[in-house]
Amino acid sequence: MQFGIFTIADITPDPTTGKVPTEHERLDLMVEEALLAEQVGLDVFALGEHHNPPFVTSSPTTTLAYIGAKTQEIILSTATTLITTNDPVKIAEDYAMLQHLTNGRVDLVMGRGNTGPVYPWFGKDIRTGIELAVENYELLHRLWREDVVTWEGKFRTPLQQFTATPRPLDGVPPFVWHGSIRSPQIAEQAAYYGDGFFHNNIFWPISHTKQMVELYRRRYEHYGHGRADQAIVGLGGQAFMRRNSQDAVREFRPYFDNAPVYGGGPSMEDFTRQTPLVVGSPEQVVERYLTMADHVGDYQRQLFLLDHAGLPRKTVLEQIEMLGTEVVPVLRRELDARRPADVPDAPTHAGRVAAAEAERGAFDPEYRFETGDNWTGLRAEDRR
Q1: DSSP 21-47
Q2: Contact 217, 228 (CB under 8 A)
Q3: H-run or E-run covering 149
Q4: Neighbours of 228 (CB within 10 A)
Q5: With b meaning 16 or more CB within 10 Å and e meaning fewer, what string describes 14-24?
Q6: What are the helix (H) ranges across 6-128?
Q7: Cis, peptide link before residue 166, omega less than 30° from 0
Q8: What pLDDT is stored for residue 130 in this prediction?
């Protein structure tokens, strides 16, 4: 099972001091978070995509490539790649490039995002959000698996004998999770392709999360990818920790009460009862997250949001260290021990290359693609 952190890189005033980090400071902290996450043994660092203030995550590939150059092992993921407003051709090129530069340490969470105005900014209509997600991913899926693609759809210009470059590393595309909080169509899409389903349930009760994951699992089995309990599932999570739970509650309360995503809503006590947020000791975080599999089945990835709401740099880094040294080792040991042997491990590039090798019979380390001639539309063998 994989454990990690994700960030949306919000720029939020610290309610206890009034300090507002600059964009540069926030980006610098984000890089430091990823480096520390690797040091303390976390498996994944994930970055959201937003194109509006107060966020500074408009270019995940640039940021993840920079972090990739400074790390060796940690998987670099997106917490959301906007499949609706990004061109699937550019996604295919950018993330295949990132895959090569990081030696396979990259995957993506495809999503529609939660900011309505982003659609017209990129020339799209929010009313066609689901249709865009379905059509754009169908094209992206082909671009990574077919060396020469001829395609026509509703939302972009057609492609004739097009080859996306570079080709995926070792002939194996980056692993894709489809992220959705409330859209059953996206759970269905994940199941159809046999991809992963990531339910970022940080604002939702476990009953809703269970319903969405069960839908995905049933449809995954329906499409013949394996048993329902073998489907690939990821969850979001939130925590704020101190050695003493009372200290955690006292310290986090002003951040909770003033954060844009919380303020004016349920009390912190109600929110922690109804959602995955834990404000307490590391032991309490372990206790809560050991129960997640009781509701959704054995799953492969658990990510935590630790750096939002204006928390100061020192506090954020302390949270990551506690997660990596005190929480995750216990969760990893306990959850791995109870997972049946035939439930898949979390996806990695090496594991997926090995699976492709077994399926092909022999893996060719000198993988090459056959491209068409973009002037004549002919492949090499057609011109002989």
Answers
A1: --HHHHHHHHHHHHHHHHHTT--EEEE
A2: yes
A3: strand 149-151
A4: 17
A5: bbeeeeebeee
A6: 23-39, 60-70, 88-101, 118-121
A7: yes
A8: 86
Question: 167: which 2 tokens?
Answer: 């080709």
- Supply the pLDDT for residue 121: 78
Report residue 6 as tokens: 């994700």
In the DSSP assignment, the letter for residue 238 is B
Q: How many alpha carbons lie under 13 Å from residue 15 in its C-beta half-sphere?
A: 13
Q: Can you tell me the distance from the alpha carbon of 310 to that of 8, in angstroms, rounded to the nearest whole number? A: 12
Q: Is the dihedral of CA 109, 111, 117, 122 positive or negative?
A: positive
The neighbouring-strand residues paired with 176 are 108
How many residues in total does the chain contain? 384
Model pLDDT for residues 98-136, shown as the tens digit of each residue: 999 999 999 999 987 666 778 787 777 778 878 988 999
**What residue type is assigned to position 355 of the chain?**
A
DSSP character at residue 323: I
Spatial distance between the Cα atoms of 71 and 242, rounded to a whole number of angstroms: 28
In whole angstroms, what is the distance from residue 381 CA to residue 229 CA? Answer: 44
User: What secondary structure letter does DSSP report for 344?
Assistant: P
pLDDT per residue over 64-73, tens digit each? 999 999 999 9
Token reading at 165: 């470059």
The C-alpha atoms of residue 207 and residue 328 are separated, in whole angstroms, by 24
DSSP reduced 3-state for 198: strand
Q: Which two tokens stand for residue 313?
A: 């740099």
**CA–CA gap between residue 254 and residue 251 (Å, rounded):** 7
Q: Hunting for tokens 């009372």 — which residue is that?
A: 246
Mean pLDDT, rounded, of the chain:
91
